[in-house]
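Bench notes, afternoon.
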Amino acid sequence: MSRLIATGYYLLFPARVLTGIRFYRVVFADRNIAYHMWCVWKQFCNFTSVFMDRFLLQNIGNISYTMEGWDKLITSLHKKQGAIILMSHFGNWEVAAHLFRSCLKDFPFLLYMGKRAKDGIENIQKQDLAHKGIKIIATDGNRTSPFDILEAIRFLKSGGVVSLSGDTIWMQNQRTIHASFMGYRVRLPKTPHLLALLSGAPIFVFFPFSTGKQKYHFILSGPFHVKASSRSDRSKAIMASAHNYISILEQSVLKSPFEWYHFEPFLVDRAS
């Protein structure tokens, strides 16, 4: 059934297929177009397993996982420094959010998510996360509020955890920063790195890798601090942090290229 659903999306959304083909042409530059088309189909098939694992976690709990780098996060939180968990559209981060909540139940947890209208499955997922004690701030892609940023800083300075995406631009007027990814110029959100600078909280870069049927290995890289000795050095510090993140993202994508579910255009143009 999941393969049929993936095939339907593959046939009905040619624009997303073309976006995927362009991406896999960069990852597998030595292969032909037929292979790149197969890569996109495999990516779509893998994505259907994300929804199945959501169901298993919420209704059965039949998910096993291992974690790497967890001790550093706990150490940072016990120091009342707070922590920023920088996620990507990689693997099954929704499952990770549920498991994070169970392991970080003693700390306030704030999760930024995109708001997609009329998406019933995602609405159910958000409601379930909220019931587990995760505070959610969702953006509709048209506007943002400075109070959302202030809320995040308050969470961090109180020793809490703020999690948000590092690879997606949600709003038209969102502050962005350019970086190089596999030889191409890309746009990244500036907010995560700005939050780290203003709050003093370290950044942990998170990736959930699938290691088998309903099995995951969660990797937390960091901590990384964003510091500037003067106001004039802030832009340089934020840029360095963004490049640090994109370097880790590139390594992870090359390691597991069919688990990055970024279906929107990401590669802007060739980097100079």
